[in-house]
Amino acid sequence: MERPHLATRREMLLASGVLFAWAYMPSLAQAEGRDPRFLVIVLHGALDGLATVAPVGDPNWVRLRVEERNALAAIASGGLDEIGHGPKPVGPLLAYFTEAASGAARFMARPDGPRAGALAFDGWDTHANEGAAHGRLSVLLGALDGALAAIEGGMSAAWKETVVAVITEFGRTARINGTEGTDHGTATVALLAGAALKGGRVIADWPGVADAALYQGRDLKPTADLRAVMKGTFCATTCAPTNSHWRDTSSLIVRA
After folding, report:
1. DSSP H helical ranges for the chain
2. What is the pTM of this model?
């Protein structure tokens, strides 16, 4: 009789010290001949959604974020490859993100590995020198890019049925503070990646960032409950049953 694989302490803790995994796969997914994976990455400290997915078509964002607008113009003219790639992430941060992501992906890709898991990356509390093109956020986004590439590589053949959700606890202020950063706010963005996803788009009920539209006069206004979006995406990916308080995101998932 073959002995089931038991994860070592290193496999479970990985480089970041956090991998929560769920081995159960709903029978409906198995009945469909599918073996999906769902991995959540939590960015601790609060991701600035207005810098990460810049609403460049909103003139009020341009007014609030002049420096970021100029950086995007430089990117469009060939000055930078993309946000998150100038300056390049180096040293411990890149190693921390990529090692944790790669280890989690290899663990989940095993035939006897978990089918759902969650990782946490620290360091996203950008109160000073945030800079999506040249500051701390640029380095963090570059490291996150490396982590996503490491997940794709680590998942190997399982990548075709994988969805990765990148979320954070809350947003950041719409306006830049006196130390070229942002403070704790309300609404932000969630990112989805993976070969099981119909991506390449931004989905939003955009509230705008005019002064009158800001939540409590300072923050991007929330228009969706992240818990409902995550619940809907997880259920659509894995065929897990759901009940109430969920948002139908099944149109985003590729069915082989």
Report:
1. 9-13, 27-31, 49-52, 59-64, 66-76, 91-109, 136-155, 226-238
2. 0.83
